[in-house]
């Protein structure tokens, strides 16, 4: 069993096949270190019901994440060929309608899901895990939803902004419901 991924620890590295801009590419998580933050989101399967709403929601907000120097990467246990077919299938037919701005990684062996402790081994799919990884490759935030409901993209952006703010201003903390531009709280990192 993989060691539990924790906030404050280096994210497990991986290299995997992905589909980006309707082409097959390789993605290595560690290649983003010192360059970009990463929002890594796991979803159960292509051609399902809730998953396309999440992938399309992240894709629709891709430019908001890019403005925060952040790459968004989706991962499921589907093959790269299934990802490509799903992207190219019309929305009315259960697909993604041709354009997805974020890469979709194939985790056919389930190794990445296992390493991030989101694999539901009984059914062979991932829970809806979300990991925000900073410039040093360190996990700063983890949420894991069950299979029945999707994530809130606004909350992911808010959390990312809070992480970036507290890394820039290390003597400040962001209180509950903090939004960019709101007052922060003076903190000591020894707390």
TrEMBL record:
The keyword Transcription does not apply. Keywords: Cytoplasm, Disulfide bond, Oxidoreductase, Peroxidase, Redox-active center. It comes from the Bacteria. GO terms for cellular component: cytoplasm. InterPro entries: AhpC/TSA, Peroxiredoxin, Peroxiredoxin_AhpC-typ, Peroxiredoxin_C, Thioredoxin-like_sf, Thioredoxin_domain. Pfam families: 1-cysPrx_C, AhpC-TSA. GO terms for biological process: cell redox homeostasis; cellular response to stress; hydrogen peroxide catabolic process; response to oxidative stress. Residues 5-165 form the Thioredoxin domain. Coiled coil: none annotated. GO terms for molecular function: thioredoxin peroxidase activity. Its main location: cytoplasm. Thiol-specific peroxidase that catalyzes the reduction of hydrogen peroxide and organic hydroperoxides to water and alcohols, respectively. Plays a role in cell protection against oxidative stress by detoxifying peroxides. Belongs to the peroxiredoxin family. AhpC/Prx1 subfamily. PANTHER family: THIOREDOXIN PEROXIDASE, THIOREDOXIN-DEPENDENT PEROXIDE REDUCTASE, MITOCHONDRIAL. This is Peroxiredoxin. It comes from Pseudanabaena cinerea FACHB-1277.
